[in-house]
Structures are given as C-alpha cells and as structure tokens.
Amino acid sequence: MDRKLDELLYALMQNMMIAVSGEKLARDLGVSHSTLVRWVDKLRAAGIEIRGELFTGYRLVRLPDVLLPQLIRPRLRTRFVGRALYHFYDVDSTNLFAARLFTHNRKIPEGTVILAESQTAGRGRLGRTWHSEREAGIYFSMVLFPKAPPSLAPLFTMATAVAMHNAVERYTGLDVDIKWPNDLLIGRRKFCGILSEIQAEVDLVKTLIIGVGVNVNHETLPEDIRDRGISLRIASGRIQSRTEILLEFFEEFENIYMGFERKGPAGIIEQWTRFSSFANGRKIEIHDGVRKIAGVTRGLNPLGALRVEQKGGHIEEVYSGDVVAWE
Ligand code: BTN
C-alpha cells in the first residue's frame, strides 16, 4: 500500500510549483478519484502537507524529507544492499516486518532493506523500545544470508556499527565512537543502536535481520533518554540529510560484508578495534545478563568477544551484554 503513496508523493514532487488536477493524478496513477482522495488523506495523516485547491488540484506546501525509494534507487552505488527496498510511512517495527516477509514463503533477495518514516513499536536490545519519531530518524532493517556459523553472527552487527561509524563521520564530519558491542556515540551519548535477529541451523545462519535506528534530525529527545542520547542535529547544530547518510552506509556496509566473504572476520575486527575507544585500556563494567564483569578492556578475540582483564590478571572473554559503566 505504501508503494502507491510513494508514487503519489513522487508525482506531487515532480510538480512542486504548480497544483496538479486530481483528475490527472488519478489517471496517471491508474486509480479512481475517490481512491486518490483517500491516498491524499493518508499522506496528510503521515505529516505531508498537501494543499487541495478547488478547481486547480493538489500541491505540496513544502518539500518533505521522505526516504522515497524513487529518489534513493537511482543513486545507489551498491550491487545488492538496498536494491530491493520497502518503504513505510508507519510500521510496527521494520525488524518485525522483515521477519514477516519470510512467513509468506516469498523469494527475498539478499540485501533487501525495509525503511520506515516512523515505527509504532520500534524495538531495542534487551527488550527495550526504540523511540522512532516521524521523519527525524533513520529506521531500517537489512536482510542477509551470510555463509557463516551462528557463532560469527555478532560480527555482522559489529560490521554494521563500523559501516555506520564511517558513513556518519564522512558525511557529517562529527567524531563518532563505538561502544561495545555496537552502540554509536558522540561523546558519551548514543545516537545509533543496532538490533540483530537471527534464524539459524546448528552450523549455518539461515537469515540475519539487522535493524538500525539512527537519531538524525531530532530537535529534542524524550526526557527519559535525554541525558544518554543525542541526535546528529543536536551534535552538529544543523539538519543532516537522512538520504545521504543512508547511501553512504549502504556502500560502506556492502564493502565490509564482501570483505568478510573473501577474507573472513579479521577485517571487521581490525576496523572495529581501530574506531572504538572501548577496545583497549578502558575501565568498564559489563552486565552480561547474569552477572557484572568489571575490568580493563584488552581488545577483541577472533570471534568479536571483548577481552576484559579482571583484578588479579584473569582475562574474561565476553560475548554479549551491555556496558553499564565506563571511565
Ligand atoms: C538498541 O537497543 O540499541 C537497538 C535499537 C535498534 C532500533 C532499530 S530501528 C529499526 C529496527 N526496527 C526495530 O524495531 N528496531 C531496529
């Protein structure tokens, strides 16, 4: 359904300065006038300002910042990431939608991306929610079929963090840090989180869904996350283009992913270690779901686990968890 709304919005964008008659729009889109009126209402409900002028037709009041596949597709610099695109104005969660694609037994190409302008049930790690304000952030999921055992799945999440780190630094000029395992920070505040979900057999990942949420143009954040969170707009003092960041990310991620297929995990580990101030010599406390592990970081092992030197010199390799305190 949202594909039709995209077509209508794209048609209106082609004629920014003039009103287009409802009759012509309906004819071009191959629908009845009453369907067109319904679609205009849906776009309006999604926050797009459309003026309806009697006798002349419809006109956009301002150019909306929407991640329209029609604008993204011609600019893709990738072979497979983002080549199949789904775009929603509202969805519960792009990760959930991606998972539902597989229940219909359809052939889903690798690199399929699901994008949303807003999510009603955006999900975070460890059962948390993800604040998904309309048009302010980038909320998307990627579908991958890596030829790798489930033990290597966390590396793809780290690859995603590295790719977003590179994309945001290159495009905004901001200084980005990666907090283990895959939160992106500016200073001590988080602007991007990643939620990966896998379906696997004992020795092979069948499907990997990587969900990414980036705070881009939020002017403020909800009170409960304001002291820990930040947006690129707050950090840089200016509005940033979600489309440009996404295009950079797709290209970066595809390169790193193809590097993995050719040469294995070493490249991901090397880049993550280079870009994260948490990799070495950092005093931290991790909660792994069961217990707290405190110590000083000593790099990653070849599977991406964080080596933490505890009091007495014992090195613990931590595979998952949350850094709850750091100096
Ligand atoms: C985290 O807790 O840090 C992970 C947040 C991941 C949020 C993204 S937004 C797009 C995708 N869909 C979801 O429901 N969650 C992820």
Report on this structure.
- The protein is an alpha+beta fold and 327 residues long.
- Helix content is 32%, strand content 26%.
- The protein is built from 9 helices and 14 strands.
- The protein has helices at 2-14, 22-29, 33-45, 69-72, 94-103, 153-172, 232-236, 242-263, 266-275, and strands spanning 50-53, 57-60, 85-88, 113-116, 137-144, 177-179, 183-186, 189-200, 205-215, 280-287, 292-300, 306-309, 315-318, 322-326.
- The protein has a 7-stranded mixed sheet with strand order 3-4-5-9-8-7-6, sandwiched between helices. The protein has a 5-stranded antiparallel sheet with strand order 13-12-11-10-14, with no helix packed on it.
- A hairpin with a 3-residue loop joins strand 6 and strand 7.
- The mean pLDDT is 94.
- Biotin (BTN) binds at residues 93-95, 119, 122-125, 128, 130, 139-141, 183, 193-195, 211-213.
Keywords:
single chain; 327 residues; alpha+beta; seven-stranded mixed β-sheet; five-stranded antiparallel β-sheet; 9 helices; binds biotin
Note the topology:
Elements: H1 2-14, H2 22-29, H3 33-45, E1 50-53, E2 57-60, H4 69-72, E3 85-88, H5 94-103, E4 113-116, E5 137-144, H6 153-172, E6 177-179, E7 183-186, E8 189-200, E9 205-215, H7 232-236, H8 242-263, H9 266-275, E10 280-287, E11 292-300, E12 306-309, E13 315-318, E14 322-326
Helix pairs in contact: 1-3, 2-3, 6-8, 6-9
The chain binds biotin (BTN).
